[in-house]
Amino acid sequence: MTQPACIDDFEHLAKARLPKAAWDYYASGANDMETLQDNCEAFRRYRVRPRVLRDVSRIDTASDFLGFPASCPIGIAPSAMQCMAHPDGERATSQAVAQFQSCMILSTYSTTPLEEVVKPTNASYWFQLYLYQNRPVSADLIRRAERAGYRALVLTVDTPQVGRRLPDARNVFKLPKPWRLANFPKEFQILTASERAAAGRVNQGEMDELTNESLGNRSDTTLTWVECIPWLRQVTSLPIILKGILTQEDALLAVKHGCDGIIVSNHGGRQLDSVSASIDALPEVVAAVKGRLEVYVDGGIRRGSDVFKALALGAKGVFIGRPALWGLGYNGQQGVEEVLKILHDELRLTMALAGCRSIAEINPGCLCKSKFVPAKL
Ligand SMILES: Cc1cc2nc3c(=O)[nH]c(=O)nc-3n(C[C@H](O)[C@H](O)[C@H](O)COP(=O)(O)O)c2cc1C
Ligand SMILES: CCCCC(=O)C(=O)O
Predict the structure, then answer these.
(1) What is the model's pTM?
(2) How far are the Cα atoms of 294, 323, 330, 359 from residue 338, in angstroms, in the given order?
(3) Which positions are tagged coiled coil (predicted)?
(4) Measured from the CB, is residue 300 less than 6 Å from ligand 1?
């Protein structure tokens, strides 16, 4: 292959370059990976209803993330440990997003310190948060994110425990040296010594020694609506986005608790296997919130036409997870830029061929459902 021409090409190129354990960590979903597969297939059950003869000589994809302008409504979802894909890791992803002027969500489990990721540009940076029982640790991360210029906090709510990803279990996955979870000091331990001893985990202290499984064991599994959102509101004035909502019931609770946005997401099929594809959950969430907060979606977006479909179903914008990692693994910053450019070009072409000249013109009437799911060629 001389030149990757679509997102799937980047997947193949990255796979050929990455060590097996890193590839497996990025690629895998939970258990039988039904949701992972359905995330992509569900887009194929929607068909576009194109309008013609509408002067599509100028296509405008300008959009915004929480009011901050963006060249198009495609952002980067938070994914942990990007230095395994390329030594420039999160820095490279950030540079690409800055060039592209969109939005990057940085994972708590970044392999680059959060302060070194934000670029002085018009791009938006949001910080993804996992909350710990040791709340001062979380409060400290939030204050650092505020100082560094992050414009929103994205609380991931679908991960009270980490889903079981079989390839990681088989590989006994561990973040390889020299990489470390750079937002935490080396000696930092989330559980106290007595908690660790009680959990039988006396020697699993250092963050850079942690496995995926032990990371999950440090999350606060006691989080509830009534406790954690007010706590967040008390420690920060940044907008709060909840990532991992899949039902109208929880969407309404997000509205009730004054959240600023939702990302409809099943964590790229990595958490509870057999939940709905995120694009299938999107309509009920959009209908429930009735415009009272911004609704974004991630999961399975591999084409500009997928972005178009998500917007037609009411998403304000979309986030991509693995495609950015594939671009990064293939060719660092340039690879991520190419991935964003291809998706942007494909979105523009879809809009032109569907007769939509601006993002605002993309609406539910642009789609219909099809029972026929074409086989992937
Ligand atoms: C390797 C990997 C690591 C991830 N790490 C995080 C994370 O640290 N925090 C988080 O909220 N979501 C994380 N996610 C989920 C993504 O933010 C996103 O929901 C998902 O990847 C979207 O699906 P896609 O990969 O099909 O685009 C991760 C996903 C992948 C693939
Ligand atoms: C504790 C979870 C680690 C990062 C993550 O969210 C993922 O691998 O999906």
Answers:
(1) 0.94
(2) 27, 10, 10, 22
(3) none
(4) yes
